[in-house]
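Suppose a colleague, Dr. K., hands you the sequence of a protein chain of 66 amino acids and asks what its three-dimensional shape might be. Before reaching for any lab equipment, you can write down a predicted structure in token form. Begin with the sequence itself:
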Amino acid sequence: MANPKKQKTHAATHRGRAHLALKKVVLNKCPKCGKAVKPHTACAACGSYKGREVRTVKVKAASKKK
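The predicted structure, expressed as tokens, is then:
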């Protein structure tokens, strides 16, 4: 395997990593319940996608506090 002939500079290293930055997560509102949802995914709160029910969502039982 070949080895580099000269040391890569600090600036060249950072230029090579320019495309590795994290992108912001895009969130949309669910049209049915209004919760934040990633695009092209079913809503975890109500189970709807593109205006129709695609999955059933389990309802959590309310815990009793004294």
